[in-house]
Amino acid sequence: MAGASYRRDIVAIGASSGGIEALTAIVAALPRDLPASLFIVLHVAAQSKSQLPEILNRAGPLPAAHAKDNEAIQSGRIYVAPPNYHLLLGQGHVRIVRGPRENNHRPAIDPLFRSAARFYGRRAIGIVLSGMLDDGAAGLIAIKKAGGIAMVQDPNDALFPDMPRNALTGAPVDYCIPKSEIPKTIVSLIGKSFPEDRGIPMADEMKKEIDIVAMDEEAINDADKPGTPSVFGCPDCGGVLWELQDDEWLRFRCRVGHAYSAEGLLASQGEDLDQALWNAFRVLHENAALARRLAERARKNNQELLVEKFETGTREAERRAELIRDLLISGRVNAAGDGGSD
Predict the structure, then answer these.
(1) Contact at 8 Å (CB) between 214 and 89?
(2) Among 9, 17, 43, 115, which one carries the catalytic annotation?
(3) Could you give the 3-state DSSP secondary structure of residue 246?
(4) Residue 180 annotated among the catalytic residues of the structure
């Protein structure tokens, strides 16, 4: 209809370490009759029992619950991603899927933000709160490209400033404010109408990424993968990672959909290296113990040449184990990718 106007009514929020404090402060200050829907991803362990909906229900007037697959979107409600499931938006409904992990997380923030950009464009507001590493930065770029609003918690106000700081680096952010100012900013943005405008169409590659996360079989089987092949392997499944570029933001995704930012990939490689060293440390100690036992057996049988051989093997295994032990104790293994995981 000519002359139709719209309001921003889709608020997608991503948080991790330190995020519960920010989330409770935000929902506590929102009005009961908020003419918008909130969608929240908080990084939680796959096997944990999330109490976030109960916490948010106690904190503020808006009803909160874990989202259900294909549930209709209603105004004035808070939809929370359940543990071990991505929360995605569709046209008028939500999706809950056990798609591939992104930056070692499921739920992850980027898939929520990209789906909000795809289906709601200028109606979407993306907000990145406290957390480590950089989940949410790539998704915030997608929201901005679609004409939406990008907001981050001021890193100086966040208990863990990495996520807000990285979002500021990656996306042209509209608001960088403390958590105390976020509720009134949401209300003011929702109160402003704008003329119908579909904004910049989302690139086919990003649409395909969203479909891969949603476990769409056609997208997964499509040989024309988003990006270009890289020289790196996927830490999750070992497949080839494809390199993608969002403006200046470098990302990677494998054939079946596991995704990493450059920093996330570095951190994951550091974890793999740490695990490999612990395995080597164990194997060398087992090797030394076996060689020592064989040396004792050879000594009982007066097999001096074998005694010397196995004792040399014992000393060499112990020497190598000591080198690895020093690396593990010093923490230098993860120095390049240090930053932790949520």
Answers:
(1) no
(2) 43
(3) strand
(4) no
Under 8 Å between Cβ of 100 and 108: no
CA atoms within 13 A on the CB side of 216: 13
Phi, psi of 64 (to 5 degrees): -125, 145
| 3 state SS of 151 | strand
Q: Strands 78-80 and 37-42: what pairing?
A: parallel
The three-point CA angle 183-186-189 to 5° equals: 150
Distance in angstroms (rounded) separating the CA atoms of residues 320 and 318:
5
Q: Residue 135 catalytic? A: yes
Provide the β-strand partners of residue 128. 14, 152
Query: Which of 9, 135, 211, 236 is labelled catalytic?
Result: 135
The predicted structure's pLDDT at residue 331: 67
C-alpha closest to that of 111 among 234, 218, 258: 258
Neighbours of 76 (CB within 10 A): 17
The answer to whether 93 is a known catalytic residue is: no
How many residues does the structure list for the chain?
342
Q: Is the pLDDT of residue 15 over 90?
A: yes
- Greatest mean pLDDT among 91-95, 220-224, 254-258: 91-95
- Asked whether 78 and 10 are in contact (CB, 8 A), the reply is no
Output phi, psi for 306, to 5 deg. Answer: -70, -35
Q: Containing H/E element for 5?
A: strand 5-7
Q: Which of 16, 17, 115, 268 is catalytic?
A: 16
